[in-house]
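Handout for the seminar on molecular recognition.
Each group receives one record of this type.
Step one: identify the two inputs.
Step two: read the structure output and locate the region that could contact fe (ii) ion.
Step three: write two sentences on what you found, then compare them with the reference statements printed after the record.
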Amino acid sequence: MMMSRGYTRLASSMFTMVSPRFFSTAATRGVLSNDMVKAPAVGLGVRCRSSMAAIGGGDKEQEKKQAVGGGGGSAKDDKEIVSYWGLDPTKVSKEDGSPWKWTCFRPWDTYRADLSIDLKKHHAPVTVLDKMAYWTVKSLRWPTDLFFQRRYGCRAMMLETVAAVPGMVGGMLLHCKSLRRFEHSGGWIKALLEEAENERMHLMTFMEVSDPRWYERALVFSVQGVFFNAYFLGYIISPKFAHRVVGYLEEEAIHSYTEFLKELDNGNIENVPAPPIAIDYWRLSPNSTLRDVVLAVRADEAHHRDVNHFASDIHYQGRQLKEAPAPLGYH
Ligand SMILES: [Fe+2]
Ligand SMILES: [Fe+2]
C-alpha cells in the first residue's frame, strides 16, 4: 500500500515534468525565447554562481535573484540548486513533525520488517535445472568464504552490491517484454524493481558501518560487469533458472546473516548503534543496534527467497509470471 502511494506520487510528478514538453510546445518555445538571455544563468546556476563569486566576490542575493528569475521560483537562503523547471523538493515530515532528512527514500517507502518469517524454508532441488542452480550458488560460496572469511560486515556490504542486480535486470526485461507484446505484467515489473531497491537500501545501510578499500571497490566493479551480463543472458534463456538461482542466493544470504548475528552475539563484532538511515527505513526504535538491523535485513532476504522461488515455480508449471499476481510490497 505504501509503495503504491509512492509510485502514484512519482507518476504524478513525472506527468508534471513531461506534460509541458509534449502538450504545449508553442508555449515552451515562447518561454525559451523570452528567457533566452536568462537561461544560461539558470541551467548552469551552480557553476556560474561559484565562478562569479570567485571572480568578483559579488552580491549573492542579486546573483540568486538573477538565477531564479526565469524559473518563477522563490529565492531562499537555504536553496543551493536553482531550477528553471520549478521542481522544488517536496517538504516531508516524520510522524513526530520533525523534517524528513532522506532524499533517497520517503516515509511511504518505510516499513517494519516481518521478523516472524520462516528462515529455514528451503526449496529441495529435484530437476536437473534446479540442481544446476543450487550447485552454481554453492560453488560461488567457496571463493566468497575464502575472500571474506569472518569479516561479515564487509561481506554483507559487498554481497549487497551483487544482490541488487537481479531484480533490476529481471524487472527491466519484463518491462521490455510488456512493451513488445502489448501486455500487462501482473505487477511483476514493480515487484522485481522493489526487490532491487530493497537490496540497494541494504547496501546504503551497510556502507554506514563498513568502508570498502580500493581493491574491494575494484572487485565490485569487475563482478558487476560479469554478473549483470551473465544474469541478463541467463534470464533471457531461462527465467525459470534465473529466479531459482536467486532463490538459492537468498537462502545463502540468510545463512550469512545468521553467522553475522552469531559473531555479534559472541562479541567478535561490535554491536554498534544502528545507522540513522536504518532506523528510519525499517522504523526501528531510536536505541536500536546493528543486531536489530541485521535481523531486519535477514528477514528481507527470506522474503526475496520466497518471491524468487515462487517466480521459478510459476515457470515450472508452464505458466507466465503475469498469470499470478505479483507479491507487491512483500517485505
Ligand atoms: Fe540484501
Ligand atoms: Fe535479498
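Reference statements: Confidence is low (pLDDT under 50) at residues 1-75. The radius of gyration is 24 Å.
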